[in-house]
Amino acid sequence: MTDAGVTELKFRDPVRARALEEALARAVEAVGRAPVSVMHVCGSHEQAIARFGLRAALPRGLNVIMGPGCPVCITDVPEVDEGVALARQGVRIATYGDMVKVPGTGMSLADAQAEGGRIDVVYSVAQAVELARQSDEPLVFFATGFETTAVATAAAVLQDPPPNFFVLSAHKYIPPVMEIVAEMPDTRVEGFLAAGHAATITGWGVFEPFVARHRLPVVVAGFEPLDILAGLLKLIELVRDGRATVENMFPRCVTKAGNLRAQEQLWRVFRPIGGKWRGIAHVPNGNLRLRDEWAYLDARKRFDIDLRRLWDHAPPALVDACICGDIMAGIKAPTDCALFGRECVPHAPVGACMVSSEGTCKIWHQYGGHPELGGYGAVCAR
Amino acid sequence: MRSVLDERITLKYGAGGEAMRTLIRQVFLDGMAPAPTNGDIGLAAMDDGAALRVGDRWLVVTTDSHVIHPIFFPGGDIGRLAVSGTVNDLAMMGATDVLALTCAVIIEEGFPRGDLVRIQQSIRDTCAEAGASIVAGDTKVMGRGELDGIVLNTTGIALSDHVVPDSGLCAEDVLIVTGTLGDHGMAVMARRHGLALDADLRSDVAPINRLVRAALDAAPGAVVAMKDPTRGGLASALHEMAEKSGVGILLDELALPITAPVRAASELLGIDPLQVANEGKAVLGVRPEAAEAVLAALRAHPLGRDAAIVGRCVAERVGTVVLDTGFGRRLVTEAEGEPLPRIC
């Protein structure tokens, strides 16, 4: 635990944070136009920004948009349907806690569970493999998330899992979707904050072709409050100076080449294919599917997944009014949505963004995504 | 407003948050005796217990059913939990001298006798700690699969000269917690999900009536509201107190006492320790001039060594709890059902 203490001192120091916030305010002002909009593409960044209340401390002229960075939110409806269909067919499903409540066409995994389906919440793929080992019956790991969790799934596949372990892959790959956002006609994004944990695997070099093509700066940042503030400061300086480069502000974890062994494992197990991200668009090379070599544990190939039985359920009417797609594309904010906080709340979500603890709407609902929380009542408990 | 009851009762209605309060209001309070006009605290107050005038004193009554999985967990067991829960609910009304407890047990067919004996010993030891005794009981056995192991219900009664409600906060009042937060829920959660991080996590389950007495005696009349942050954690307790009292609450994150293992587990699991259950803690609303005296009295007691001033009541944003993180500010909301570990 001593490490955690040291880390907290270094990266959670409110005094240093205030100095960075002041520098950030000066940099935003020096850009000379407001607002300046930048985008991050990671639920963990949004979690940290909201968790530490940073939006209440950012300069008013800076707009930090959360892009399609919540792996739960962009898992597409047909992918959720596949998991639900398997569960209703009596197959045991293991998945991450966040996935359980995500609505599919008509049902979520939680609904399937209420009907008698067996759903196990796991914290890691290793835990799912362990569950499979404890019995002979088939267990399907509904695998979601970006390259960070995909690498873990790949490692499990390569470590000779038991024969009753299967994978239903809904993994996604982040770099291609940044291209989609940069090319959206309504985009206001002037730079990207890239996720430090994903970059430990891919390396920061992966963003160089993107920067060259779109002339937009990319800064790789970590997840402590000071990491995020320092990352934003660097990004605004690049915008101010009109420099489109990749900068690594997470050098204690990220290198240019990344984790070559993890990359090798990732691409040995998965191949990228085009596919739809919920609410966003068709993303070329954005979906990760198991290569044919691993067909024997691919749930899509080993089970007859009957999706038609699900389609008797009509989708809820409110879904038409949901603007999750525009929110994840950075065009709108949760507070622009007529359903937000009224018909759409965490215990009765309409869109996936309100389900996941990494979804923009859930985070804003939970932590208040507003700057107005400052400015009253002194806190002097210490 | 947005709280509409579902057709089926799901687990979230037992998680101690807004959903549970809606269930109680819409189903259990329906047609029951209205709020008493003689100053008694009854069902409608939805406080930790009831307080009834008897001569010039108050008779405080509370009841609580206890189910937990696993039955034995690091730092305690269901027996210790059942005694502590009821003793603490009495104490939260200001009734720290327990007159008597009752204990009803429902056992699943096939339950090991040895475990029952361990639970009984734990009940006995915890009663001794609290200065309480069990004066009546009931035993039932149900068929295999008709309940999960064992259910305990305890009812407690106590006489008190003064009653402390959970609705007495005013702007400027100081909030004190009696010790570290999140220990019980995190220890049980880690054990239940097999998370292999429970080496340093221990439940705080304990009867705190004597600790509370020390605080009340340190500054008579100055403790104006109390609540034990059990299910739903400090977040739910403060929301309820803020709503009932008509104040806003500002918390100081850097002042919150949280042990390193609980902090590490909550970071790893993505669970806010403010939403995690405690079973041996209280949050006290104290008049500002008495805060230091109450804090000193708490810290002088072995169960209150980590007591801390964690926030203040304000007139703004009534019913909301805002956390000053040291970097900025954010809302603290209540948990929706049981917290689930998040994806990454």
What does this structure look like?
- The complex is a heterodimer of chains A (382) and B (344).
- Chain A is α/β, with parallel strands linked by helices and 382 residues long.
- In chain A, 38% of the residues lie in helices and 16% in strands.
- Chain A has 15 helices and 11 strands.
- Chain A has a 5-stranded parallel beta sheet. Chain A has a 4-stranded parallel beta sheet with strand order 4-3-5-6, with helices on both faces. In chain A, strands 10-11 form a two-stranded antiparallel ribbon.
- In chain A, strand 8 (218-221), helix 11 and strand 9 form a beta-alpha-beta unit.
- Residues 1-9 of chain A have low confidence and may be disordered.
- Chain B has 344 residues and is of the alpha+beta class.
- Chain B has 2 domains: 33-158, 60s Ribosomal Protein L30, Chain: A; 174-332, PurM-like C-terminal domain (Phosphoribosyl-aminoimidazole Synthetase, Chain A, domain 2, Alpha-Beta Complex), CATH 3.90.650.10.
- Chain B is 28% helix and 24% strand.
- Chain B has 8 helices and 14 strands.
- In chain B, the strands form 3 sheets. Chain B has a 7-stranded mixed beta sheet. A 5-stranded mixed beta sheet of chain B has the order 1-2-7-5-6, with helices on one face.
- In chain B, a hairpin with a 2-residue loop joins strand 1 (50-54) and strand 2.
- The longest helix of chain B has 18 residues, at 113-130.
- The interface between A and B is large, with 54 and 49 residues.
